Amino acid sequence: MRLFLAFFYLFVFVVSLSAQEKEVVLMGTIRDTLGNSLPGAVLVNKTTGLWKKGNKEGVFSFSMMRKDTMQVYVVGYEILEYVIDDSIKKESYDVIIKMKELSYNLDEFVVKGVKSYNEIRKGINSVQLRIPDKYPDATIANPISLLFEKFSKKEQSNRLAAQLEYQLAMDNLLKDLFDLYNKYEIIDLNDHEYDNFIAFMGMSDEYLKASKDYDLALIVKKQFLLYRKLGY
Asked: Shortest CA distance to 43 belongs to which of 77, 76, 69?
């Protein structure tokens, strides 16, 4: 009983401290080492698992607690962790986050600036979703379980990060494919339409990997005509 009460008071103390803290707004731009803006970055609060995307100019705005860690994901770049390190407490911070390009071994595959169809197809068939080991499910029947669930956010964040990296890789491969289809006039999309068209198609990764070249081009063409017919 004493052990239970000790955990209960610890839980109340943690919640009380959290309630006293206020969120701050972290805003700025994601850039590469040369200063070029990086579009489509994914920002994840490592503590809570909440995430959002930067815009096509690499600009973002992200709310977090001062003690939280923000992870930044851009396909082809190293994962960056950012914490607020400022002795002067402010309600908002304006920052420039610079991402370092990844270097790869020969047995790793990342598509960047893909030009040929064969390279795009190889990328689609090669990219894999790497999910970390599942974390144990915690019930919320008592404060001890609630504390466990709180501390298991790290595992949830790792799984979310793996899923986001995989989806970003697949989306970028599709955008390379659209570039090629545009070149051969199979479709006629502007760059800013790519994300909307990917969402509109709703094509499963399984079909994308299993489809034959001609079938894939045909279904994308049909979806594009429907996309235009519906006024997008």
From this structure: 69
